[in-house]
Write a structure and sequence with these properties.
Elements lengths: L4 E2 L5 H18 L7 H16 L5 E6 L15 E2 L4 E12 L1 H6 L5 E8 L11 E7 L13 H12 L7 E5 L5 H10 L2 E5 L3 H9 L7 E7 H14 L2 E6 L4 H10 L7 E2 H4 L6 E6 L17 E10 L4 E10 L6 H13 L1
Parallel strand pairs: 1-4, 2-4, 7-8, 7-9
Antiparallel strand pairs: 2-3, 4-5, 5-12, 6-9, 6-10, 10-11, 12-13, 13-14
Helix pairs in contact: 1-2, 2-10, 4-5, 6-7
Length: 341
């Protein structure tokens, strides 16, 4: 029998996707502080892939771990889901902040986003992007081509606050020395983070998290992932390619791309029906990390689930009572063998 498909992803997909991020977070959390970035990432990938196979959708990974030859798990172009249900683009980051997880630091999360098939931008050879993200009330105030100071003054005015009261999320990288100096000169406060700009974008788009703006250069794939959440929240986001490595610059130059092109939310994901789910792995600024301290075989998680079509934002506290140990690597291998037989 041919697989049944539908054109529009429905509301149930959001709740299915959070099961995927919960599984990834629980598996990865076992590696917290153990100094093993690859081990934590692999555990999350195994769990995410295993649970994705149970979701009724015909999904294609657009934002994954890389090309197939370089990333044998959740690679760009991989088919995921049961094959029944809506056709969707999928963006994943099984562990955003692998270094944060390995060192036991805050704000490591498992993330997935979905949108109608063909609606997510494919970054191709663009690995880095300059980003500017704010909440809905300030979305008309941003201009990524303008100076940080002028942006901050307009954002403050839109929010009815003083620049001195704004807090800006910036990745703590050498490339941001001038940006940090400009923000300080403007008078705004800065929250520096070594990794995790999907979380930073999420916090900037949600009022009351303690972060008002995200500024600076981060990963382009993470920008597409973040755009699904920001769009669902009604926030504002702009981006520009910002190549950092010589090979990236050479490839983009050969393609003749316009490095001055400004991407808005509709460029990054043009669907108005996006889904976003994230589960905290380590303790976070507004999501609790995975906890194993509620008794034998009981684990708690906290997640956020967002859907653009309805504008709904759900915070989900999960209490998982495991009757047996889940071996996601074994499940993944068995499912792959079954699919190929």
């Amino acid at each position: 029998m041919a697989a049944q498909t539908s054109a529009q992803p429905d509301r149930n997909l959001a709740m299915e996707l959070v099961r995927v991020t919960e599984a990834a977070a629980i598996s990865a959390a076992r590696y917290m502080g153990r100094g093993d970035k690859d081990g934590g990432d692999q555990a999350a990938v195994n769990a995410m892939r295993a649970f994705l196979r149970t979701v009724d959708m015909d999904g294609t990974v657009v934002i994954g771990e890389g090309e197939k030859d370089e990333a044998p798990m959740l690679y760009n172009g991989e088919k995921v889901g049961s094959g029944r249900g809506p056709r969707v683009d999928i963006a994943v980051d099984p562990v955003e902040g692998t270094r944060l997880l390995a060192l036991g630091r805050p704000n490591s999360i498992a993330v997935i986003a979905a949108a109608e098939a063909g609606s997510m931008w494919r970054p191709g050879n663009s690995f880095y992007m300059d980003k500017l993200v704010v909440e809905a009330a300030a979305r008309e105030a941003i201009d990524i081509n303008d100076t940080p100071a002028r942006n901050l003054h307009r954002i403050a005015e839109a929010l009815g606050r003083k620049v001195e009261d704004l807090t800006v999320f910036v990745l703590d990288k050498p490339r941001h020395q001038e940006l940090i100096a400009a923000i300080r000169k403007a008078g705004a406060r800065i929250s520096l983070h070594t990794d995790g700009d999907v979380m930073g974008a999420l916090m900037a788009a949600i009022p009351g998290t303690g972060i008002d703006v995200l500024m600076g250069i981060g990963g382009t794939p993470e920008g597409v992932l973040a755009a699904c959440a920001v769009k669902a929240l009604g926030g504002g986001m702009q981006g520009k390619r910002a190549p950092q490595k010589a090979i990236e610059k050479e490839r983009l130059a050969a393609e003749g791309v316009d490095l001055d092109q400004v991407f808005d939310l509709d460029d990054l994901v043009h669907s108005d029906n996006t889904f976003f789910a994230a589960t905290a792995i380590t303790e976070g600024s507004f999501l609790e990390g995975v906890r194993f301290d509620r008794g034998k075989d009981v684990v708690t998680t906290e997640s956020i689930v967002i859907r653009s079509a309805s504008g709904s934002v759900r915070y989900i506290k999960g209490i998982h009572q495991f009757r047996r140990k889940f071996d996601f690597e074994k499940i993944d291998a068995e499912a792959a063998a079954s699919a190929s037989s």
